[in-house]
Amino acid sequence: MDTAYLIETIIKVVVILLIFSALAGIGTYFERKILAFMQRRLGPMYVGPYGLLQVAADGVKLFTKEDIIPTNVVGPVFKLAPVITAATAFMAAAAIPFFPQFTIFGYTVHPIVADLNIGILYILGVMAIGLYGPLLGGMASANKFALLSAARTAAVFISYEVVSGLAILAPIMMVGSLSLIDFNNYQVGGISHWIVWTQPVAFILFWISAFAETGRTPFHLIANDHEIIDGFGTEYSGMRWGLFFIGEYANMFFISFVIPLIFLGGYGDGSLLGALGLIGKVAFFFFFFLWTRAAWPDVRPDQLMWLCWKVLMPLAVINVVITGLVMMF
């Protein structure tokens, strides 16, 4: 293996880990501020100017808080579950091109860890494995409410993975590739070439599924902290709880990259303007996650399953069939 390529890959992995771990903390600050603005509150204000140091204070608290392992839990599984959640979130980032390639000091940098020809399949597969984090965490806990949350988590994740997989199938048929870079290149012609115009149903279905995959409102039945307890994380403390938290916010950022790369032209022709445009799209989708939490109530589990199996999945199947017929003729 080329030494320069190996060093570049290691640097990219470290940068992704550092940046998105930090963004998970910063994301909480923006979420609290946005929710406070929409609900006529102040949000974090006392730790640093405008509460900007609240992120650092929360980080110090998590790292220094006592790590409590309750007596009756299944110890090894209980300890492993948060690691699975955080690890799978960052593993999914390996196939995401965060920016167009650029040259520095005569060396061309490709801002993607691995341009897999099955990149989308890899991302969906790794995010599906992320189900085992909350599932094992709830099952290993000595708490019936954590177990109930784990069961609901499995139901939501498995159901909406079907919808997201079927939704993305139609654009894959059009592009003829599973690489996100190929998806970006397919839409290079400008805004009129964006896949969203030819696949609006797939775009909406995938976007809805993204809320379920990340466990965000109105699909927030996974952690169900609105029911006083914290769902599968009820018996966790300190940094083990923090890993669940980091995994959730990292997934939000990564899915906010995937949606515009597939449907909204990605970074376009690779220019600086295209890169800035991608950042703007990512910021919008991340903001929309927060906006929805402030503006939309949670739904009941039976409503969530009804929506998935009786509305979204049939629509996804019909969309795939229509796409196939159009391409055939």
TrEMBL record:
Enzyme class: translocase
Pfam families, A to Z: NADHdh
Enzyme Commission no: 7.1.1.-
The organism's place on the tree of life at top rank: Bacteria
Protein's UniProt keywords contain Transferase: no
The keyword Transmembrane belongs to this UniProt entry's keyword annotation: yes
Catalytic activity: a quinone + NADH + 5 H(+)(in) = a quinol + NAD(+) + 4 H(+)(out)
Protein localization: Cell inner membrane; Cell membrane; Membrane
Major location category of this protein: membrane
Membrane topology: Multi-pass membrane protein
Keywords: Cell inner membrane, Cell membrane, Membrane, NAD, Oxidoreductase, Quinone, Translocase, Transmembrane, Transmembrane helix, Ubiquinone
GO biological process, one term: aerobic respiration
Transmembrane segments: 6-30, 80-99, 119-142, 154-174, 194-212, 249-267, 273-292, 304-328
GO MF entries: NADH dehydrogenase activity; oxidoreductase activity, acting on NAD(P)H, quinone or similar compound as acceptor; quinone binding
Gene Ontology CC: one annotated term: plasma membrane
Subunit structure: NDH-1 is composed of 14 different subunits. Subunits NuoA, H, J, K, L, M, N constitute the membrane sector of the complex.
Family: Belongs to the complex I subunit 1 family.
Stated role: NDH-1 shuttles electrons from NADH, via FMN and iron-sulfur (Fe-S) centers, to quinones in the respiratory chain. The immediate electron acceptor for the enzyme in this species is believed to be ubiquinone. Couples the redox reaction to proton translocation (for every two electrons transferred, four hydrogen ions are translocated across the cytoplasmic membrane), and thus conserves the redox energy in a proton gradient. This subunit may bind ubiquinone.
Alphabetized HAMAP family for the sequence: NDH1_NuoH
Record protein name field: NADH-quinone oxidoreductase subunit H
